[in-house]
Amino acid sequence: MRRQIHPEAALRGSAAVPVPVPAGEVSQEAAVAVPGAEAGGRETMRTEFAFELPRGYVDPAGQVHRHGVMRLATARDELVPLRDDRVRENPAYLSVVLLGRVVERIGTVTDVHAGIIEDLFASDLAFLQDFYRRINAEGHTRAQVTCPSCATGFAVDLAGGRLGES
Fold first, then answer.
1. What is the pTM of this model?
2. CA 83, chain centre distance (Å)
3. I want to staple 55 with a disulfide (CB 3.0 to 4.6 A). Which of 68, 96, 121, 129 is the partner?
């Protein structure tokens, strides 16, 4: 069963409060039961993360796709690409194959594979590599930054939104 969970609750690691998903809309997060959850309740974990590419994927028809979803990687996701001949010939290709496995969709493109990742602009590839590292190693998409003008520190969410948007 897929349902959307409140992002802040998921990041705190507490039991999340389900947020209704409008009919016909696909949830961007998945709830997973965790063994040892509180009596009578279910503990949930966020496994899918929405993102917005800096430039966007341009499909063969010329349409630009910027919004997407990446899921958490499994051990298999990290091991299978090591057997790929393209990775054996060129170890730098590892991130392309790996991202092709964990990116669930980019815009309306749901069949994301290494060929799609190859066609991304370099800035979008770098964004996805950093996004992958953040959600799989650090467990969140926030980054601490400092304003170059006033030296004030604040957090930004790398998952999306344009400058000035909340």
1. 0.62
2. 24
3. 121
3-class DSSP assignment, residue 103: strand
DSSP assignment letter at 28: S
Say if residues 70 and 49 touch (Cβ distance below 8 Å): yes
Neighbours of 31 (CB within 10 A): 20
- Look at residue 146 in the predicted model and tell me its pLDDT: 85
Phi, psi for residue 116 in degrees, rounded to 5: -65, -45
At 127, give phi and psi (nearest 5°).
-60, -50
Q: What is the pLDDT of residues 10-46, one digit of tens each?
A: 343 333 333 333 333 334 444 434 444 445 567 788 8
Alpha carbons 19 and 27: distance in angstroms, whole number: 10
Alpha carbon distance 72, 136 (integer Å): 6
SS3 70: strand
| Residues contacting 49, CB < 8 A, separation 6+ | 28, 29, 69, 70, 71, 72, 131, 135, 141, 159
Q: What single DSSP character describes residue 80? A: G
Strand, coil or helix: 17: coil
